[in-house]
Amino acid sequence: MTAEAGVRPGARTQFARRAVGSPGVRVAGRRLLAVIPVLWGVTFLTFIVMNMLPGDAAQELLGANATPAEVHQLEIQLHLNEPFWVRYGNWFGGLLKGDLGTSLSGGQPVTTILGQRLPVTAELLLYAFVASVVFAVGLAVLAARRPNGIGDRISMAVSMMGLSIAPYVLAPVLVYLFAIKVGWFPAIGYTPLTQNPVENIKSLTLPAASIGFPLFAVYTRLLRADIVEQMQREDYIVTARAKGVPPWRILIRHALRNSLFGLITLVGLNFGTLIGAVAIIEPIFSLPGVGAILIESINNRDLPVVEGIVVIFAVITVAANLLADLLYVALDPRIRYERAAV
Amino acid sequence: MSAPLFRPAGPQTLLPPEVTAPKRARTRRAENWTHDLKITIPLGLLILIAGACFLWPLVYPVPKPTGGSILDAGLPPFSPGHLFGTDAVGNDIFSRILYGGRVSFEVGVSVTAIGLVIGGLFGVIAGYLGGITDAVISRVLDVLIAFPALVLALAIAEGLGPSELHVIWALSFFGIPAVGRVARAATLALREQTFMLAARLAGTPRWRVVLRHILPNIMPQLMTFSLLGIGVIIILEGALSYLGLGIPPPNPSWGSMIANGQQTLSSQPELVLIPSAFLFVTVLSLNLLGDALRERWGVR
Amino acid sequence: MRTVCLGLAAIVIAACSSSSSSTPGNNTSAAPASGGSLTVLEWSGFAGDWPAGLDPATNTNGAADQSQMDAIYGELFELGPRGVIIPDLATGYAFSNGGKTITIDIRQGVKFTDGTPFNAAAVVWNIKRDLASSCTCKPVWLVKSVTATSPSTVQVNLLVPDGAFINQIFDSTADWIASPAAVQKMGEKAFALKPVGAGPFVVVSDTPSSVLVLKKNPGYWQKGRPYLDSLTFKAVGGDEAAYEALLAGNGQVYEDMSTPALLKQAAQHFNVENQLSTSPYDLQLNTLTPPFSNVKARQAIYAATNFAPILQHIFSNLYPMTEGFTGPGGICYQPTVPGYPSYNLALAKSLVRQLGGLTVNLGTIQNLVAQYTTEALQTEWQQAGIKVTISSYPLASLIAQFTGKKWQAMVQTAGSYDPAAGVGVGFRFSSLSPFSGVHDPHLDGLLNQAAATVDQSQRCQFYNQAAQYIAQKYYGPFYFAFAPANIAVRGVTGPGLSQPLPAVVVTPTILWEDVSYNKAAS
Predict the structure, then answer these.
(1) How many angstroms separate the most distant Cα atoms in chain B?
(2) Which sequence spans correspond to the domains of chain A?
(3) Which of C151, C381, C170 lies closest to C278, judged by CA?
(4) pLDDT (tens digit, 9 = 90+) per residue, A273-288?
(5) CB–CB of C410/C364 below 8 Å?
(6) How many CB pairs below 8 A link A and C?
(7) Looking at chain A, which residue has its C-alpha nearest residue C133?
(8) In the CATH scheme, what is the homologous superfamily, with its name and number, of domain A111-300?
(9) Minimum distance, in Å, between the CA of residue B14 and any CA atom of chain C
(10) More confident residue, A307 or C479
(11) pLDDT value at position B3?
(12) What is the mean pLDDT of residues C100-104?
């Protein structure tokens, strides 16, 4: 229904306009649009980078016994001789249809390989994140209860250690202490969830701890700083205190809830960067995840597999960021209306 | 950072002591001193380690970090002439720690500097100018952050050969967007302030505003972020060397020493423990220093 | 067969040193315990990697996965302790027609685990399929025809005589016979993930390059075998990780440990079984490009290289020095070569001066011990005035170095149980091999003659001449005949685990049907 000049639009139009025009939806819409070029940029960049590598899969697959004619034959078969744009176009077209191609070093479809391995990595990362957030919340709350008190100082010391230790240094220590010395967890290997849930958790605990401890450290510091600042600066907290609300309640129901937003954003940001940590930790523990084959695939010039992994992680990173952003906008009314001015 | 308008009733545990109670001069000086310790101790440690890495070999002879005689292989720590012992080919470990440390510091500082300059510049421009420029720059930064630096590092190491310079390039890919985002956010926050508006109204040219108002105000934030960033970069360089993508053998790097040592962890644990300890203490000092400066400068 | 991959991956195993003191205490005279399950750890860079599945015709990793293949398929002929050829699924062989025809007798009354008969027709079907596949793992024979002359006899006719045919079977995919009915029924892709053979074990589940779970084949042809009820293969990241896993009880066997320091450590808790070496370490020199196109430069390398301290300090003196491409575990073993140019630092220095300086790029595969070796060589050569840069490459880049012909000197291994098989001498020294730095028709002639002769002692004579010729022309020095070691917890017995086995290609093929695990003894 159009609005002629001077005539007020009907109720339904007004509602529709307000819904679409509401700042929250506008922000969300803009975010979604922004995601597309980012995804494209990442996949394109990966394709370029991988093509810079010397040697190609055909030579590697056939090995030294192959004659140049055989190598050429395989190259044609694998479409490796076609110009860059054609190859990229083929791959991207396939991507949009959900087909990620076939692995050059085994002939298995990339989607199958990723389908087998992704759940392992996903479970590992989920475990690491959940554990680190839970422990971070616990420790941060304890710390913020009495700033500069004993609990605070201890938790700050612990988190400072976590920030300074590298996963590849922590992992062997954990294996030595908990797998060899006390034998609570296996040193290597993965038991699928469907086979034995208890063994599954045990087989992922040490790897998740190696990845999660630095994360836990970061989150603890962030949460604690945020909560303490809220307790000190925010007027509504002071009001609540004045009204006689018990301090624990304020801490948890108000300060913590608001601080979690900042944490969520950070978690979203972190997700994609963990591809590096996973590539180091999974081989150490012999977990059959995507990190384990990432490096091997790059060494084998197995382009489809590498691209597949990068795309998945890019999508997850971008999606996680988007979700965090949207959550932020949706839950914090102030942002919604502030953003209207942006 | 303003104090609350009135003091709330109840236990004074939610507010810092400086705010709730007046201080006597002596206690205030004592506190200043403890605050100073927070800065001086890590700073001192860092200067000690970095100084040793870069200067010790110049003033006091140490064996070369590579080309050790195989007849001296596998000596334990505290052997004569080899404070930390030797590795499997006879290289002196103490010397390798020093030279490896050089790599860590060089890479850490270079990548951070590049990040500050390039990332900071683009971040400020994006934040200040807004609009299309902001949109484009932000998208580029998003792509750089979502792109796994590991893949790039691997590609560079394979394609161009592993070397310290290539590690710096690869890690800058990661460092630039990190600083860029912080710079942009800080600029955005600053942009809304009244004094900025006043400056524009007074007719100050844009570049002057950036130089005289924005940069000095975001510097503390960027500096503390970067200081913490050095620690992250050092750990990442270690990771790349761990995977064999960083400093090529036989040149030492703490990361490759750790990786190699881990392969004989059960028989010669000191080959892992020593570089791990140095890595840990260095990064810890950087983090403590960054934290202390952040407190000092009142940065969020 | 993927000889390339094997050969280059062999260098990774090359670092293997076996402790000269194989821990006593496995009383093999007691009757082997029946039952039990065993978890075997394999290094993910070699045997613990099977991305293309376990079909002999398509497994691009070829003989690297010989342990898994042997457990599922058994073998036509097996190489047993002391180099004895054991008839497994084949019962005998005969050469005729001057070495151009080989007749193989197939064991009768055997069935695949899907119930279909194991006969000559099945073997012929497999060999034809292997030869026709596009896999680099395919057999290298020049076959004119292969037919089943009777339900239990297979006749192979070659275009050229091949005296090494049976020895070549050990690392050939033709040794593993798949059930034709199963391949046709399941389709190749599915078969590769859940193969069907006539070996001692049946596949229960398979996660490629990660975990392979097998259980006892109830219909196995050898009564009373296998001893084990179940066998699981797990991939592991490296020697240290495997050692820790063994300590934590996550496995009972680790194949092919290569880190010398860990072998000493492992000997305190486990049984370390040293194999008999068949593959010496060698230093390849590229004679096709400078600097090693100049014979003086090659001579300088021989003179500047002293392997004894390397053997002592990196490899703990665990292997015998050698001057040729044969090892004590293989045929035609000859440790010394008459006229072999030995270490002479003064000569090296003078040669370098005559050359006006010598700059070398020395490469090897990305493996810790291999790297240590190149670093030690660098130090030694620098004493003679040679400028050395060292590089280490992952497998794909290493291949690229060879095919790009840019390499100058490479630390590798050469030799196998039979020099004419697998990563034998031709792989590194024949003019036809892209991995060779030598193009010499005289040497080619010697090697071809040796391969074609059926009489073993005559073959050995040719190989001795070849080793002497290589030394005369300074084509590349040999260090020592290394051999990998298998680690097992106490209570595990079997060929390759409590008894040494000659390596087929670098590593031996463990005969899983003869392996038993007595937990009480551990």
Answers:
(1) 76
(2) 7-104+334-342, 111-300
(3) C170
(4) 787 888 889 988 999 9
(5) yes
(6) 118
(7) A62
(8) MetI-like (1.10.3720.10)
(9) 48
(10) C479
(11) 34
(12) 94
CB distance C261 to C243 below 8 Å: no
Residue of B66, B71, B89 to mutate, interface with C, max C Cβ within 10 Å: B89
3-state SS, residue C374: helix
Taking residues B63-78, report their average pLDDT. Answer: 81
Q: Is the CB of residue A113 less than 8 Å away from at least one CB of chain B? A: no
- Which of C136, C249, C394 is nearest residue A63 as measured by Cβ atoms? C136
> Is residue C229 a contact partner of residue C215, using CB atoms and an 8 Å limit?
yes
SS3 category, B104: helix
Distance CA B296, CA B285 (A): 16
Interface of C with A in 27-46 (CB under 8 A): 41, 44
Name every residue whose Cβ is closer than 8 Å to that of residue C62 and which is 6 or more positions away in sequence: C1, C2, C3, C5, C6, C135, C136, C137, C171, C173
- Listed residue (C193, C194, C146) closest to C172, CA to CA: C146
Judged by phi (left if over 0) then psi (alpha if -120 to 50, else beta), residue C149 lies in alpha
Taking Cα atoms as reference points, which of C337, C289, C376 lies closest to residue C477? Answer: C337
Contact of C208 with chain A, judged by CB distance below 8 Å, is answered with yes
A166 touching B (Cβ < 8 Å): yes
C88: left (phi over 0), alpha (psi -120 to 50) or beta: alpha
- How far separated are the first and last CA of chain A, in Å rounded? 29
Q: Is C378 on the interface with B (CB under 8 A)?
A: yes
% helix, strand, coil for chain C, step of 5: 35, 25, 45
| pLDDT, tens only, C305-314 | 998 888 888 8
> What residues of A are in contact with residue C2 (Cβ under 8 Å)?
63
> B23-39 pLDDT, tens per residue?
555 566 656 656 677 88
Question: Has this prediction a pTM greater than 0.90?
Answer: no
Task: Name the pLDDT band for C250 (thresholds 50, 70, 90).
Answer: very high
The counts of H helices and E strands in chain B are: 12, 0
The answer on pLDDT for B105 being more than 90 is yes
Cα separations in angstroms, C308 against B110, C18, C317: 44, 16, 8
Question: Averaged over B104-126, what is the pLDDT?
Answer: 91
Residues of chain A numbered 26-85 and touching chain B (CB < 8 Å): 34, 37-38, 41-42, 45-46, 49-50, 52-54
Distances (CA, A) of A94 to A87, A89, A102, A112, A312: 11, 8, 11, 15, 14
Nearest CA in chain A to C247: A180
Question: Å from B26 to nearest chain A CA?
Answer: 20
Contact A148 B8 (CB under 8 A): no
